[in-house]
Amino acid sequence: MKFAFSTLGVPGLPIPEVVGLATATGYQGVELRAHPEEPVHPGIGAAERASVVDDFKRAGVEILTVAGYVRVADTTADEDSVRQELDDLLWLARDLGAANVRVFPGGGDQDPAEADAAAARRLGAAGEVAADFGVRILLETHDSHRTGVDAARVLGTVGHPQVGVLWDVMHTWLGGEDPITTHAVLAPHLGYVQVKDIASAEDTTPLALGAGVLPLAECMALLADGGAGGDAGDDGWVCWEYEKRWYPKAPELQGLLEAGRGYLEGLVGGGR
Description:
Blueprint: E1 2-6, H1 15-25, E2 29-33, H2 46-59, E3 62-71, H3 79-96, E4 100-104, H4 112-133, E5 136-140, H5 148-158, E6 163-168, H6 169-174, H7 179-186, E7 190-195, H8 216-226, E8 237-240, H9 257-268
Parallel strand pairs: 1-2, 1-8, 2-3, 3-4, 4-5, 5-6, 6-7, 7-8
């Protein structure tokens, strides 16, 4: 199993420093938050993209994902705008050599059937471009489609190998779904897993891994047994998404990363 962290935990950090942090703390990959306030986003040019690729390549660190903010289940959104946002993210991922593009559901309080249909239609169309680029689009378990069962309704309709799911363990837990159920319904579509830890459902301030209430040991055991990313064991990815961007008073991620990786390795090896 391989480990990555999200730049959501180190907001605004220059890419050379992100790469240096990954190598210093033993992470094999990084999930890049592709927002305009970050160093990497669809608006950067060819020279900037090439520089990012060079930084990661020289360090031997992988760009796991371009984490975008397209809301594919939003039925109120303009179709052309959603398609353009998806295309821009796919081009960015292609240029960077990233394996995945992350998208959100964003269905809000809309009719679930209509939201599902919109998401499936958009993802299915974008899947053809993703296939040409060698990139996979991952729908995160989030907001209107918080649980694995919610996400699986969409993915089962899409039925495209380049469209899968990103399992955020906090959101499925907040949705009242146990890890066994989540893993069972998402296994055929699973890209990788985002882990984090929090104090409670009422207090989602990020904590060091293992210091909170999320069922990380159970989730990691399922991945070790059944694979992360649809592969058996060692080839799967787990990414620590520490939401420092939304909680500026939380401890700095830099000082937690090495211990966090050790904690996850211990869970995979049966250390808890």
